[in-house]
Design brief:
Blueprint lengths: L1 E5 L10 H14 L3 E4 L7 H11 L2 E5 L3 H6 L1 H10 L6 E2 L10 H20 L4 E4 L7 E2 L2 E2 H8 L5 E6 H6 L4 H7 L6 E4 L1 E5 L2 E5 L8 H11 L3 E4 L9 H14 L4
Parallel strand pairs: 1-2, 1-12, 2-3, 4-5, 5-8, 8-9, 9-12
Antiparallel strand pairs: 6-7, 10-11
């Protein structure tokens, strides 16, 4: 399993191409060889390919604009191939499709053709969960229904450890339940501060990362992408480095 930096953590530093390039350099110097592009400014695929090649970085997955994914999925997949990425991803279920049985049915009806189109180009659509996928429909969490309603060869999951826990699930259990369909995992820690649930660098919060990392291996995860949505005034680059150092001390790189 390879450690990667989810660039959404440092999204404020990727809003121009010059800043984006400098951010890739800083992340590489921390020790990361893998990144997920998310929350960045617009870029040409060839530009990103050049930057990744220059720094010997790989980008196995992105979060991609949902409207583009639905309108031109084949083109999105082809563009991703330019910078060596075969996993365009959905960062979150569109708002009108949340919190209802009909909304979920609309989600499946809308996204299943896109997943099939992306697969036809040799890529695989990825879905990143939040806590809302642990709302139940007909006695089952939405995430479980998604695993059934999208064929195993049509959709993979980017399991987010923080949001599984926030939804009342056990991240290690869900990793194993989705075995073979979680090539990329978002590692996030959780801590309570003054009665508030917060994000934290890995191994600085309360989540059971011993069990989570073992489950990642059992589930066949290939990339462990470190993310911290909010750093609460701390330097986000420092937070990424602390997480990397903690995980590196546990034998990962």
């Amino acid at each position: 399993m390879k450690l990667g930096a989810q660039l959404y953590t440092v999204r404020a530093h990727t809003q121009t191409l010059d800043d984006f390039a400098r951010t890739l350099e800083r992340v590489k110097k921390m020790g990361y060889d893998t990144v997920q592009v998310s929350g960045a400014c617009a870029f040409e695929p060839a530009w990103l390919a050049e930057q990744l090649g220059r720094l010997e970085l790989t980008c196995p997955i992105t979060h991609t604009n949902v409207d583009r994914l639905l309108a031109e999925p084949e083109k999105v997949a082809d563009e991703h191939k330019v910078f060596g990425c075969a996993r365009p991803g959905v960062g979150m279920m569109p708002e009108p499709m949340r919190h209802s049985e009909q909304g979920y049915r609309d989600f499946v009806e809308t996204f299943l053709p896109a997943a099939r189109a992306i697969k036809s180009r040799g890529a695989r659509l990825q879905y990143h969960n939040h806590d809302l996928e642990f709302e139940q429909i007909d006695g089952a969490p939405i995430l479980a229904r998604m695993a059934e309603d999208f064929a195993p060869d049509g959709l993979d999951f980017v399991l987010d450890t923080y949001w599984v826990q926030a939804g009342g699930g056990d991240p290690a259990d869900w990793l194993r339940r989705l075995k073979g369909r979680v090539p990329c995992v978002h590692l996030k820690d959780m801590i309570m501060v003054a009665g508030e649930r917060r994000y934290a660098p890995i191994f600085e919060g309360n989540m059971n990362f011993g069990a989570i990392l073992a489950a990642c291996e059992d589930a066949g995860a290939q990339f462990l992408l470190i993310e911290q949505d909010d750093c609460y005034g701390d330097d986000p680059f420092d937070c990424l480095k602390r997480s990397y150092d903690h995980l590196h001390a546990h034998g990962l790189d």
